[in-house]
């Protein structure tokens, strides 16, 4: 029954003869795992072409394993939601048996569900959960993942319907390759009327249905690299229009608002760009990149572990070498200790033998020292006599040298006395000559001194006379200044009187002009103003001064 159902779901022809031939009775039983797996691979899986409904295939596999493994405790999700989580697990799990989902993929799935529920992602809560998970194992099995999502640990505050809708949205995106879906208005090709349809965008096709239950399909828009999408202006009372151009047809569609219109245009354009580049859907490409990154990290970790093992092996080898060297050193130390013991024993024997020889040598040395001391005493007496004789010889030589030096000094002193006597007589004659010259010079100096004294007395008398004349002139000058002040006052008084008289005359007569007398003699001007005497008087005074000066000289 299992084989027939598998063939039906996978669109593979069933061969009962091959089944009966493969499962003949053997020692392990006709339906053992060891016997069925080769049959499954050879007669069923190798014939699969890929043109089967993957959802139905997953549902059959779910029917086989869910009843036995699904938790009996109540969950916040339904069996249908648990089936979708099971299918998502198969998509995100690692490619090795037993299947597990690693923490990175768990985080990716929970973020998707949280985003679909419209809630905020709790990174700190997941980090604590990830730390607790990494300490025990590498990842979760599918049943543990269903329990995690069904327990509501990461969907607190959300009701069952919201969680179910989030699971369904993630299932449509990851498993059914639904990139976008929603209600829009479509313009008919024949009747040109606008009808509301439920559109579903997949990597290479846009399908539209009567409603979102997907039961009544109305048509498809096949997408390829030649398709394009562009916005249209509002017309015929319809807004938020855009056009999908294909090779054979074009489709006019109206979104509910501008935001939906822009989202649909961007999603369709992204799908067309992926078809042109030959790239897989975004979620599959992202999964492949995450898988490659994990493989790269795993390879780096394995390489690091390999290097650590090599280092550990090298360390162990070094430890073994060090242990061998330590043992060799211990053996060498034991040999060295034995040799040291023998050496010490030999040294003790040699010391005893050397002690006896040393005693004998000491006695011989003592006798030789006594003989040497005696000889040394005799030698010392002989040397003392020699030193006394040498000392006497040196004293005699010094006495002779002193006598010779005394004679030379006496001769030198006698010559020096004779030379000094000659110099003294010459200097005495010269001094007598200088004495005579000095006496003559003194006599001449006395006469000159007397003459200079006379001249000085004459000059002092002349200076006294000049001082008296200067004092006389100063008195005369003061008197002249007093006379000048009196005359000046008189002139000012006269000028004032004349001015007042002239003003009066001019006031009364107007035409009378006064004639003022001029100066008869020119006045002399000194540093203190007009002089008090005339030029003739000044000449007479100069002659008088010259006569007094000649008389004094």
TrEMBL record:
**One Pfam family, short name please?**
PH
Q: Which residues form the PH domain?
A: 177-273
Query: Which keywords does this chain's UniProt record carry?
Result: Cell membrane, Cell projection, Coiled coil, Cytoplasm, DNA-binding, Membrane, Nucleus, Phosphoprotein
Localization, per the record, is: Cell membrane; Cell projection, Lamellipodium; Cytoplasm; Nucleus
Annotated function: Phosphatidylinositol 3,4,5-trisphosphate-dependent guanine nucleotide exchange factor (GEF) which, independently of RAS, transduces signals from tyrosine kinase receptors to RAC. It also mediates signaling of membrane ruffling. Regulates the actin cytoskeleton as an effector or adapter protein in response to agonist stimulated phosphatidylinositol (3,4)-bisphosphate production and cell protrusion.
Q: Look up the record and report any one GO term of the cellular component aspect.
A: lamellipodium
Keyword Endoplasmic reticulum: yes or no? no
Q: What is this protein called?
A: Switch-associated protein 70
- What SUPFAM superfamilies does its record include? PH domain-like
Q: Which segments does the entry list as coiled coil?
A: 283-504
Top-level taxon:
Eukaryota
- Where is the secretion signal located? none
């Amino acid at each position: 029954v299992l084989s027939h159902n598998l063939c039906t779901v996978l669109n593979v022809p069933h061969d009962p003869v091959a089944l009966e031939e493969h499962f003949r009775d053997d020692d392990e039983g006709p339906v053992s795992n060891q016997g069925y797996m080769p049959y499954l691979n050879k007669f069923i899986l190798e014939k699969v072409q890929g043109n089967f409904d993957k959802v139905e295939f997953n549902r059959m596999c779910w029917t086989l394993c869910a009843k036995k493994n699904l938790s009996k405790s109540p969950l916040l999700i339904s069996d249908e939601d648990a089936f979708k989580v099971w299918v998502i697990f198969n998509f995100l799990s690692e490619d090795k048996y037993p299947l597990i989902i690693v923490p990175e993929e768990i985080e990716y799935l929970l973020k998707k569900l949280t985003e679909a529920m419209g809630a905020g992602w709790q990174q700190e809560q997941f980090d604590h959960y990830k730390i607790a998970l990494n300490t025990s194992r590498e990842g979760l099995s599918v049943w543990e993942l269903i329990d995690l999502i069904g327990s509501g640990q990461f969907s607190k505050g959300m009701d069952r319907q919201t969680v179910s809708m989030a699971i369904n949205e993630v299932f449509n995106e990851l498993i059914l390759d639904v990139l976008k879906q929603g209600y829009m208005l479509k313009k008919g090709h024949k009747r040109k009327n606008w009808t509301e349809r439920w559109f579903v965008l997949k990597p290479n096709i846009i399908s539209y249905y009567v409603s979102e239950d997907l039961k009544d399909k109305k048509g498809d828009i096949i997408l390829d690299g030649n398709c394009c999408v562009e916005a249209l202006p509002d017309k015929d009372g319809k807004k938020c229009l855009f056009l999908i151009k294909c090779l054979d047809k074009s489709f006019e569609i109206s979104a509910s608002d501008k935001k939906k219109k822009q989202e649909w245009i961007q999603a369709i354009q992204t799908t067309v760009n992926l078809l042109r580049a030959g790239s897989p859907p975004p979620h599959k490409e992202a999964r492949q990149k995450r898988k490659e990154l994990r493989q790269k990290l795993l390879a780096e970790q394995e390489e690091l572990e390999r290097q650590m093992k090599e280092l550990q092996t090298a360390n162990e080898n070094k430890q073994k070498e060090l242990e061998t060297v330590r043992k060799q050193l211990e053996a060498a130390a034991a040999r060295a200790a034995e040799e040291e013991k023998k050496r010490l024993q030999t040294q003790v024997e040699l010391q005893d033998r050397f002690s006896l020889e040393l005693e004998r040598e000491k006695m011989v040395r003592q006798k030789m020292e006594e003989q040497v001391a005696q000889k040394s005493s005799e030698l010392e007496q002989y040397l003392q006599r020699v030193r006394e004789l040498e000392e006497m010889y040196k004293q005699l030589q010094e006495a002779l040298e002193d006598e010779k030096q005394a004679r030379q000094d006496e001769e030198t002193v006698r010559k020096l006395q004779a030379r000094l006597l000659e110099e003294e007589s010459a200097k005495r004659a010269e001094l007598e000559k200088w004495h005579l010259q000095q006496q003559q010079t003194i006599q001449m100096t006395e006469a000159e001194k007397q003459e200079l004294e006379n001249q000085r007395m004459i000059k002092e008398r002349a200076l006294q006379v000049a001082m008296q004349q200067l004092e006389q002139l100063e008195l005369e000058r003061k008197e002249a200044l007093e006379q000048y002040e009196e005359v000046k006052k008189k002139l000012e008084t006269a000028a004032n009187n004349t001015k007042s008289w002239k003003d009066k005359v001019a006031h009364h007569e107007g035409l009378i002009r006064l004639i003022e007398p001029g100066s008869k003699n020119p006045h002399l001007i000194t540093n203190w103003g007009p002089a008090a005497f005339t030029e003739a008087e000044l000449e007479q005074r100069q002659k008088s001064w010259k006569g007094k000066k000649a008389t004094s000289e």
